[in-house]
Amino acid sequence: SLAAELGAPALHARLAERDPVTAARLTPGDTQRVIRAWEVLEATGEGLAAWWRRLAAPPAPWCFAHVKLDPPRVDVRAAIDARFLAMMAAGALEEVRALAALGLDPALPAMRAHGVPPLLAAIRGDLPLEAAIARGQAMVRQYAKRQATWFRHHALAPPERTFTIDAWLGGIAQFSEKRMAGLFAFIDDFLLTRRTMAG
User: Fold this and answer.
1) Reported CATH class of domain 66-198
2) Above pLDDT 70, what percent of the chain?
3) Do domains 2-55 and 66-198 have the same CATH topology?
4) Of 133, 130, 151, residue with least CA distance to 80
5) Which of helix, strand or coil describes residue 42?
6) Nearest Cα to Cα of residue 129 among 74, 77, 89
7) Is the backbone of residue 103 left (phi > 0), alpha (psi -120 to 50) or beta?
């Protein structure tokens, strides 16, 4: 990775050139946060500071009900691993090989997509394929964990307007009629409350 090549302080200096506001909030030695800030900047074209400003904006004049999918972590991890293996079976390695043949800049988002760096290493002969697959799976699991952490700290609606589905919908049998009834009751109550307030 770029952080491994340059070191966090040097990556922080690069970040400061393109997103000085975010860089000022981070210490050069905070490797994880510096890398994350760089990833956001590279992936979206905007720094974290710009995204923070949006989150701090006044709430929209609409009222939301939030249905949150929060299945057990063990199920999410298993699904991610299975999905990665399915992608490999469907030709992911050949796709990455074709990508490598284009000679693109390694800093481009496409070259840093989940699973691409370890598969590139396997193609170069720097990493056994099994190890590359394991690293690719780990990259996606880490991303899913960051997503879950973000949603835990950035509620889209207050608790009374949030319905959490904690079953794994890949095994639909786990989503019982009782839970489905609870979800419909939550939606009905929300809509009824909105109609009453509007009237």
Assistant:
1) mainly alpha
2) 87
3) no
4) 133
5) helix
6) 89
7) left
Domain-wise residue ranges, the chain = 2-55, 66-198
Distance CA 182, CA 91 (A): 41
**Which sign does the torsion angle of CA 80, 86, 87, 88 carry?**
positive
Task: Pick the closest to residue 84 from 43, 142, 138, 144 (CA basis).
Answer: 138
Contact present, 96 and 119 (Cβ < 8 Å): yes
CA distance 168 to 172: 7
Q: Which CATH number fits domain 2-55: 1.10.20.140, 1.20.1730.10, 2.40.30.90, 3.90.1200.10?
A: 1.10.20.140
| Mean of the per-residue pLDDT values of the chain | 85
Token pair 């307007």 in the structure block, residue: 161
CA angle, residues 81, 148, 74, in degrees to nearest 5: 40
Distances from the Cα of 164 to the Cα of 25, 62, 116, 186, 191, angstroms: 33, 21, 33, 10, 17
Q: How many residues does the chain have?
A: 199
Taking 90 as the threshold, does the pLDDT of residue 96 lie above it?
yes
